[in-house]
Amino acid sequence: MSEDIIRIRDLSTRFFTAEGQVNAVSDLELTIERGEVFGIVGESGSGKSVTALSVMDLVESPGEITGGSIEYRNPAFADAIRDTHPDAVDGELVDLLAIPRETRQSLRGTSFSMVFQDPESSFNPTLTVGEQLAEAVEVQRRASANPRSTRARTNRSRYSLGSYVLSTVLPSQRYVTDESRNRAVELLELVGIPDPVERADEYPYEYSGGMLQRAMIAQALAGEPDVLIADEPTTALDVTIQAQILDLLSDLQEETGMTILLITHNLGVVAWMCDRVGVMYAGEIVERGQLEDVFDRPTHPYTKGLLGSVPDLEGAGGRLQPIPGNVPSLLDREMPDRCYFADRCPKAMDECLEHPPEFDVEGSDEHAAKCYLAEVEYTESRALPADYFELKDASETDERPVAADDEEPHRTGSGTGQETETTPAGDGSTSGSGGDSE
Amino acid sequence: MSTETETETEAEAEAETETEAETTTKVEIDAEAETGSEQPLVRVDSLHKYFYEKNSIVDRLLGEEPVAVRAVDDVSFDIHRGETLGLVGESGCGKSTTGETLLHLQEPTDGAVEFQGRNVFELAGRHLDRFRRSAQVVFQDPFSSLDPRMTIGRIVQQPLDVHSVDTEADRRDRVQNLLEVVGLSADQFDRYPHEFSGGQRQRIAIARALALEPEFVVLDEPTSSLDVSVQAEVLNLLDDLQDEFDLTYLLISHDLSVIRHVCDRVAVMYLGEIVEIGPVENIFAEPKHPYTQALLASVPRASTDEKERERETISGDVPSPRDPPSGCRFRTRCPEVIPPADLEIEQSTYRDLMNLRERVESRELSLELVDDGEGNRIDGSSGRVGNVDVTDERTGDETRAIVGAVKDRLFSAGDGTLPGRHDEVVTAALEAAVDDDWQRAAAMLREEYESVCERVNPGLGEEAHAVACHLYGDPDELVPGDRPDGESNVGRERDERE
Ligand code: SF4
Ligand code: SF4
Questions:
Q1: Radius of gyration over alpha carbons of chain B, in Å?
Q2: Do B93 and A436 make contact, defined as CB atoms within 8 angstroms?
Q3: Are residues A47 and A4 in the same domain?
Q4: Which of residues 252 through 281 in chain A touch B, CB cutoff 8 A?
Q5: Structural domain count, chain A
Q6: How many CB atoms within 10 Å of residue B257?
Q7: Are A263 and A365 within one domain?
Q8: B218 pairs with which residues across the strands?
Q9: Is the pLDDT of residue A407 over 60?
Q10: Dihedral angle at the C-alpha atoms of B167, B158, B219, B173, nearest 10 degrees?
Q11: Which terminus of chain B faces fewer neighbouring Cβ atoms within 10 Å, N or C?
């Protein structure tokens, strides 16, 4: 059963900031199959989170999807909108970028839902967890009772100021039936929360980080989505709790058969969870394939570098193989038309001064890489001089700050960047809060 | 903690001070070199750091008891010259507080830290000054730890200025040199932090820490905010610097692969205590403490075998350091918690029973809504059917229904049934709970199932690879009531508070 459920073609997402145009995602190609766990792995500034937000239609100003298509396979949905938007429909596939935004948003919850890194931001502190889950259930019920409704209030996956104000004015107990409440308790039980009846009556602050992450997953499951997009779902958690959440996601995936798109910086998490994987760098997928293709037969020097820089838990010390240089700039004016990795690549050659297309490489049929090494042998004679880019860039961009903003704009707002290299801590510490919180 | 040894060391230190006052630097160095061979550079002895909540004047006027958060609770270890000791654990385990307290950036609640044989907490004058120069720290966040209004040259030079080392020109030279040492360039002296990437800023922080030629550096999550490719560079740099300047490191990290890669020895912390300490190879190849084992098993490996890996992960959350469990602090999650000797029981069943006890004792067990078969919902916890309170007239059938439902939920692995006698005990206890007699329920279960792990807090041995767990203890010591520290553990905070 390898039917594609999502087909992304030439997707480009840009941010128009004061500093200039930021190419967060460029011409991205991606196919996700029904029932698989697809991983997108990359470092800060790679565009992995923006890709997720683009699929969810959560890109916020000054960001904008500027091109491409995101096709979603759903026969019922295709039938429902075939009359009004014939151009957007191709058989069972609907191009989400070719239908009105409201229609697209009605898919949230029932077709796509999302789990974020920080569950705190997904819950309203003034309502009990149960109330919020029940409300999510209620919204999904109404939405599915009227699938074409554009008024469905499905925007519960992220807690916004608007709903905060609303909920203070109309405190709790709003239009939620007993049925929805019971379903909320069931959902809490499903995600492994002990004593779900009691816990449903507690407020978010009474939950531990791991519990709240479970509750957020419950919230995301309220509409029984086809595709769950999990953006660094365990990054803020401790490693033993991370293991619990990964196990939970695996189990849920097996039980429900839903498709998971997992965004992470952690190669171990990818290996634990994913069937196929795409490695992102500078807004592109530079290598993709089955997990084994990418981990055991990496072709792109960046993939190799990434794998080489992870300290090995089993083996002894020794030198790590870092990738020299900095995270690339994503400012349009600073992105020359060459391989974006060339300035850090140990094997950069003359041909790399032209932007490489995607080549098939050895391994499974799906194994592909955007790198000339897939086609030509590396030869010293064609190698670029070691200081080629230093000399070239020295004039203007000497030691300039890192890439402009791209990562996690849903957290940082439309910041101007600089901070991009602060990626969430590895393996699950509370990032940025100083590790221990004693 | 033995007062005897403390007085001894104090006397020693004083004697040394007197002689030193008159001697030249050379003698001092010799003395240090001599002690270095046998004496650890840093000796942490029974370090305690509690934070007190509800400790304001108002709280005291209101008669509120201050609540101790036992961030660091009786921690002892040595750090030898030239080595890297890793301190690993999850958030809230006290590892960062340990690092800050041993540098005297926090006031200790109790215990001592000796640096080069002198108690850090009692240093004054020249010795304090020397300690402040010899022991440095690098923090996690290179974005907040550098003053954005200062040039990076000034930032690195600041410690030299404070301690008025050399002339202004010499200092500048020194800083330029340091910038090169950490892989930046001397002509970046007049740049500002925002012009640098995260990895570069961490280099700046490292250069600053090295400015006063310290012997000892505490690295508190130095690479946690960096991308993995950048992290690799910084780790390599730290390695080089250690060789070049004979540095001793205390590396605090939650990241086991970083610890594995960098450290010579490792101490694993859980809820304010060290549960295992030993050479890095031993800890990773043969972890002894069930917590260390679980921690290692939980780390996802970046390898295609990862999906097939057998992993024993642990359930539950870390308990609050305000009210840590009695006995072994890991017992609420430990998959190997030790049953009473005469009890025949499967380990997993015992774990389930211990979880049940935990919840009965904290009265956090949900006596869930069950259907009474006539469409009415009985809420076992309040004894209500619909809006009618039926506690008094609850029938035996209803009680049984509630108890059965709870058992189904808690012991789902075995279809809600427990082997033989355990079923009787649990059923009787749950019936007591349904009757709202939680105390009796708890007592019934305790009598049957109390573990040595909850009575006695296992001590950390003196071996090179030491572990604080009864599985490795002398079985004779585990006779109930033999060692009173299990009980006294509860009241210990009182006694030891200053
Ligand atoms: S295309 Fe050239 S520069 Fe880019 S990764 Fe491949 S070898 Fe390196
Ligand atoms: S002392 Fe008991 S509870 Fe603690 S780790 Fe050892 S076996 Fe587990």
A1: 28
A2: yes
A3: yes
A4: 265-272
A5: 2
A6: 22
A7: yes
A8: B137, B250
A9: no
A10: -40
A11: C
A83 within some domain: no
Instruction: Looking at the structure, tell me whether residues A253 and A367 fall in a common domain.
Output: yes
Mean pLDDT of B64-90: 92
Burial per residue of B259-287, b for 16 or more beta-carbon CB atoms within 10 angstroms, e otherwise = bbbbbbbbbbbbbbbbbbbbebebbbeeb
pLDDT at A97 over 60: yes
Which is nearest to B16 in space by CA: B28, B30, B24? B28
Looking at the fold, whether A150 and A245 belong to one and the same domain comes out as: no
Residues A284 and A428 in one domain: yes
Phi, psi of A281 (to 5 degrees): -150, 130
Q: What is d(CA A49, CA A343) in angstroms, rounded to the nearest whole number?
A: 24
The mean pLDDT of A357-376, rounded to a whole number, is 92
Q: Is A373 in the pocket of ligand 1 (CB under 6 A)?
A: yes
User: Looking at residue A108, what DSSP letter applies?
Assistant: B
Are A207 and A251 found together in one domain? no
What mean pLDDT, rounded, does chain A reach? 81
Interface subset of B 62-101, CB within 8 angstroms of A: 69, 71, 90-97
Q: What is the pLDDT of residues B238-263, one digit of tens each?
A: 999 999 999 999 999 999 999 999 99
| Ligand 2 atom closest to B458 (CA) | 1
Of the two residues B311 and B494, the one the predictor is more confident about is B311
Task: Show the domain range for A11.
Answer: 1-74+226-438
Characterise B415 by phi-psi region: left (phi > 0), alpha (psi -120 to 50), beta (else): left
The pLDDT score that the predictor gives to residue A313 is 83
The pLDDT score that the predictor gives to residue A145 is: 62
Which amino acid is located at B367 in the chain?
A: L
**Are residues A334 and A425 both part of a single domain?**
yes
Asked whether this complex has an ipTM greater than 0.90, the answer is no
Same structural domain for residues A383 and A411? yes
Best CA proximity match to A137, nearest among A197, A103, A179, A196: A179
Tell whether A261 is covered by a domain. Answer: yes
Dist. CA A338–CA A160, nearest whole Å:
40
Q: What is the DSSP letter of A370?
A: S
Nearest listed ligand to the Cα of residue B273? 2
> For the whole model, what pTM was predicted?
0.83
Band (A304; pLDDT cuts 50, 70, 90): very high
Tell whether A200 lies on the interface with B, counting CB pairs under 8 A: no
Tell me if chain B has a CB within 8 Å of the CB of A202.
no
Q: Considering only CB atoms, which chain A residues are within 8 Å of B47?
A: none
Average pLDDT over residues B479-485: 42
pLDDT for A24: 94
What are the distances in angstroms from CA A202 to CA A59, A127, A215, B31, B45?
Answer: 32, 8, 11, 62, 42
Q: Name the domain boundary from A180, A199, A225.
A: A225
Peptide bond into A62 cis (omega under 30): yes
Quick check: B174 and B160 in contact, CB under 8 A? yes
Contact in structure between A357 and A375 (CB atoms under 8 Å)? no
Domains of chain B: 39-286 (3.40.50.300), 347-450 (no CATH)
pLDDT tens across B421-446, in order?
A: 888 899 899 988 888 889 999 999 99
Ligand 2 neighbours (beta carbon < 6 A): B 289-290, 328, 330-331, 334, 336-338, 453, 458, 469-471
Is the distance from CB of A405 to CB of A415 less than 8 angstroms? Answer: yes
Confirm whether A95 is domain-assigned: no
- Distances from the Cα of A121 to the Cαs of A264, A411, B145, B294, B450, in angstroms? 19, 9, 26, 30, 41
Distance of CA A190 to the CA centre of its chain: 24
* Residue B332 near chain A (CB below 8 Å): no
> Which region among A17-31, A228-242, A314-328 has the lowest average model confidence (pLDDT)?
A314-328
Choose the final residue of a domain: A166, A198, A225. Answer: A225
Residue A168 lies in a domain: yes
User: d(Cα B277, Cα B467) in Å, to the nearest integer?
Assistant: 7
Question: Quick one: residue B485, left, alpha or beta (phi over 0 = left, psi -120 to 50 = alpha)?
Answer: alpha
